[in-house]
Amino acid sequence: MTRHNERAASEGIPPALPHRVAILQLGKLGDMILTTPLFTALQQLNPRVRITVIAARESAIIAQHHSAVDEVLEVPRGFWQVPALITRLRANRFDLFIDTKDHHSTTSRLIAEIIRADRSIVHRSNTGRRSGVQELPPPASPGHFVDRVLAPLALLAPGRSFRRTPSVGIPREAYRAVDDQIDQGEYGLVTINISAGHPSRYWRPEKWEETITLLARRYNVAVLSAPADRALADEICTMRKHARPIRTTSILEAAAVVERSLAIISPDTAVIHLASAMQRPCVGLYPPNEENARIFAPLAEPHVVLRPPPDGSIADIAVEDVLRGVREILR
After folding, report:
1. How far is CA 80 from CA 37, 72, 77, 83, 99, in A?
2. How many domains does the chain have?
3. Residue 98: in which H helix or E strand, if any?
4. 143 and 179: one domain?
5. Disulfide engineering: 117 pairs with which of 94, 123, 238, 260, CB 3.0-4.6 Å?
6. How far is CA 184 from CA 170, 190, 251, in A?
């Protein structure tokens, strides 16, 4: 930290806005989507800011296509590739390093140790031995994941508020890949995502079939799925008029489908956060855990969150409740 910044901090004055910022986000696709408000806010604070995102390979694509991000460094899976990452990190000198992880992480601590930054904002258990480290502030209410992501801005711009909505850049080729597959119909397209990150978050296929049958009386229906669930998507759409499985090869192609849609139905996955980024009404099927529903709730308006009883699972959510949720968001 420079003498100017040290004096400013001691006097309670926010230091000069950083020009070169490194942000660590090693979470999944949904976590990266929900981190994009921080990219946007930093660019709003300093239009000349240069942002480097350190990301997991699986979620780097979101940062790579975000308009505020200049560079993405992928964290490799194999330990034999770590020296190359260290070399790339040490090749840069950053004004500010931000890690929004709010708990201990060995990887976070390691990167905080090796990165060359004048100032760091990290969780107290991941500070390492460097000087110029500030503790990650607690998030503002209501305690959504985005509030945790934006918490460092309380140190950079005290008293200011920033837009909480995520944003996703969709390249033209993503639209081209899906536009030939979707038909928005006369009354609009409702997109259903049948896949989830864990078996406990899957809805039953027969419930998807019933939901699609009833929705397709008015709307065209697009069905998104992970590659492992494509056969299931085909089966669900078979013999159902106005329902079509959509083949996507990346999360950005899925985002293009969401952007073309009237409304989204999905378990608690990255597709929910795509709906928030595109500001598309959505019905989210969430596990019974109340804290999880609060942290990862949709940010699109309107939205409906459905949860089973405390001793149940997503599979127990009724078709009638999903259809009622669709009517509510499309009212």
Report:
1. 33, 20, 9, 7, 24
2. 2
3. strand 96-99
4. no
5. 94
6. 19, 8, 20
Q: Chunked in runs of 10, what are the mean pLDDT values of the chain (331 residues)?
A: 43 65 95 98 95 95 97 78 76 92 85 88 79 80 88 93 96 96 93 94 95 94 96 90 93 98 97 98 96 94 96 95 97 86
Q: Could you tell me the CATH number of the domain that includes residue 83?
A: 3.40.50.2000
Tokens of 111: 């990167």
Q: Which of 301, 210, 308 is nearest to 267 (CA)?
A: 308
CA dihedral 83, 87, 90, 96 (to 10 degrees): -70
Shared domain for 186 and 125, answered yes or no, is no
The residue segments making up the domain with residue 128 are 3-156
22 and 120 together in one domain: yes
**Would you say residue 184 lies in a domain?**
yes
Cβ within 8 Å of residue 123, ≥6 positions away: 99, 101, 102, 103, 104, 105, 108, 135, 136
- Residues 6 or more apart from 320 whose CB is under 8 A from it? none
Tell whether 189 and 125 lie within a shared domain: no
